[in-house]
Amino acid sequence: MLERRKPKKGYHHGNLREAILNESLIWIKKKGVESLSLREIAKKIGVTHSAPNKHFSKKESLLASLIELGFIQFKSALIDGKKEIEVHPREAFIAMGISYLRFANENPELYRLMFSNSVHDLSEYPACELAGMESFNVLLSAVVTLQANGILKKGDPKEMAYMIWSFTHGYVMLVLDGRLQGIDSKQKNSSSQLSSEAMFTSLMQQMGGGLLV
Questions:
Q1: Domains and CATH numbers, the chain
Q2: How far apart are CA 108 and CA 114, in angstroms?
């Protein structure tokens, strides 16, 4: 008679979905997204290979949930960065940008997944799509506040937010890919913060003749 696989310590009946997501985050951080498989994750947490099917019918649905989780964490980081935007709007906006960069530095594989085309049709995963839009809305609300305070130039706030996000994402990807000499994506000290501040200020001043007033 075959013995039932014993669940590993830390997994309890009822939180299988959470256990799968947590183990998957560890996996992609160490080994990347390509090698991730539901069968291997099931083995890691000590359940049968078919057990994850209750929550994730295929790898893409798991990836969508990881992207959703990533954007939830990303949104939290952005909100934390801009928490004093009503009092110190310019400084808070720069701090939000630094929070963006640090999130990507600390979670490079997850960040890449969040902005990849690994999920072919996000409309099939509305919670994932919503999480991404809510992250963007944090930036959008910051742009509106900065415009109201006369710090950013007037204009369509959504268009400006997309522009800032596009430039920021491009910079982050260059850092993660090691394409910028003298910038270490794993640095988290004060010199890294200073370079981030200079980068964001420079980007905003250059875009469209200078977004900062």
A1: 16-54 (1.10.10), 64-209 (1.10.357.10)
A2: 10
Report d(CA 191, CA 194) in Å as an integer.
5
DSSP for 138-205 reads: HHHHHHHHHHHTTSBPSS-HHHHHHHHHHHHHHHHHHHHTT-STT--TT--SHHHHHHHHHHHHHHHH
Find, among 25, 134, 127, 21, the residue nearest to 79 by Cα: 134
Tokens of 66: 């990881």
Tokens in use for 194?
A: 């200073």
Nearest to 176 by CA among 168, 167, 184: 184
Give per-residue pLDDT as tens, 158-203.
999 998 899 889 988 988 888 776 555 555 444 454 565 566 667 6
Asked if 155 and 96 touch (Cβ cutoff 8 Å), the reply is no
Q: Which amino acid is at 115?
A: F
Q: With H, G, I as helix, E, B as strand and everything else as coil, classify residue 113.
A: helix
